[in-house]
Amino acid sequence: MTEARQVLVDTNILVDVTNDTGEWAAWSREMVADFQGGIFINPIIYSELCVPLESTEEAEALIATLGLGYLELPREALFLAAHAFRQYRRQGGNKTSPLPDFFIGAHALVLGIPILTRDVSRYRSYFPEVRLISP
């Protein structure tokens, strides 16, 4: 069992688990099992997870099946996400609105919990204080 008791799970891990394909599917399933009861999503992750789904009922059933908890984004995390986006723009980023990873990284930072993800580059760049659990 991993030492952290709670984790914010990135959508890429949930896609691995639900599709059960790809080179990281087994690792992602193992990590989700290790954190069972302490895996959380937020509104951003919820939205990303819903892209291929047809209804909120389907989304809620998937969330229940995966045993995911749901946490709202506190204002402090929203503020930190805005500042990460400002840094991104100052460094030449061309997106015109904050990226999902900024909200997820800021949320994990405020909560003081790690992110379970396969996509570490943006988190490492903008939230180096956040512990990442990755392959």
Notable traits:
53% helix, five-stranded parallel beta sheet, globular, 135 residues, alpha/beta, 7 helices, Rossmann fold
What's the short story on this structure?
The protein is an alpha/beta fold and 135 residues long. It is 53% helix and 9% strand.
Description of the molecule:
This protein is of the alpha/beta class. The protein has a single domain, classed as Rossmann fold, CATH 3.40.50. Helix content is 53%, strand content 9%. It contains 7 helices and 5 strands; from the N terminus they run βααβααβααβαβ. The chain has helices spanning 11-19, 25-34, 43-50, 56-66, 75-90, 100-111, 121-126; strands at residues 7-9, 39-41, 69-70, 115-116, 132-133. Strands 3-2-1-4-5 form a 5-stranded parallel β-sheet. Helix 7 links the parallel strand 4 and strand 5 (132-133). The longest helix is centred in the middle third of the chain and has 16 residues, at 75-90. The mean pLDDT is 93.
Question: What is the CATH class?
Answer: Alpha Beta
Please bin the fraction of helical residues: 40-55%
Q: Please give the number of β-strands.
A: 5
Low-confidence stretches: none
The CATH superfamily appears as 5'-nuclease
Largest sheet features: 5 strands, parallel
What count of domains describes the coordinates?
A: 1
Number of helices: 7
Class of secondary structure makeup: alpha/beta
Mean pLDDT: 93
Q: Please tell me how large the radius of gyration is.
A: 15 Å
Distance between the termini: 15 Å
Q: Walk across the major sheet and give the strand order.
A: 3-2-1-4-5
- CATH fold naming: Rossmann fold
Query: How much beta, percentage-wise?
Result: 5-15%
What is the H/E string?
EHHEHHEHHEHE
Shape: globular
CATH architecture: 3-Layer(aba) Sandwich
